[in-house]
Specification:
With 161 residues, the protein is mainly beta. Helix content is 9%, strand content 35%.
Length: 161
């Protein structure tokens, strides 16, 4: 686990970032760029509907830059800022840890198997955090014939073996 000193509500402290340096969350916390989400209002070619979330998405699977276009249905229950301002998304190893001390915009949820997602607000900008995990397969229950109990043997002294 990486140690770092000085955290405020916006994240890390410790001076100004130089223009050749990566953002502190990637350099010091190990967050990994995942995508940029851009809200829009007009249908796009090859968008697909994610009914349970109330959104239409396109581009994520094909963009070499991780650009995801998002169109929200009127009944979609996300904060207005997520509907109107582009967001950057990072994959994190531990979502709960990544949320500590941050302003939570959308509490953690599991939109699909294998991923937990939350949004934070940083300096007025929405940021999405994703934690990916592998669901453990549960083996199917099978019926077995009851096994015969082993017979107990006696050792030379008459004790059970």
């Amino acid at each position: 686990m990486r140690k770092w000193i000085g955290r405020n509500k916006r994240g890390l402290t410790g001076g100004k970032r130089l223009n050749h340096e990566p953002p502190a969350v990637t350099a010091k916390l190990g967050w990994r760029y995942h995508h940029i989400g851009i809200p829009h209002t007009q249908p796009r070619a090859r968008e697909h509907h994610v009914g349970q979330l109330g959104v239409y998405v396109s581009g994520f699977e094909t963009s070499p830059y991780g650009i995801e276009w998002i169109r929200f249905e009127p009944h979609c229950r996300v904060p207005e800022i997520v509907r109107t301002v582009p967001h950057i998304a990072f994959a994190v190893d531990d979502l709960n840890e990544a949320l500590k001390g941050r302003e939570i915009l959308i509490a953690p949820t599991e939109p699909s198997v294998g991923v937990r997602v939350a949004f934070i607000l940083d300096d007025g900008a929405p940021v999405e955090l994703l934690e990916f995990y592998t669901a453990k397969a549960v083996p199917p229950k099978t019926r077995h014939a009851p096994e015969a109990m082993p017979k107990k043997s006696l050792d030379a002294s008459g004790g059970k073996i």
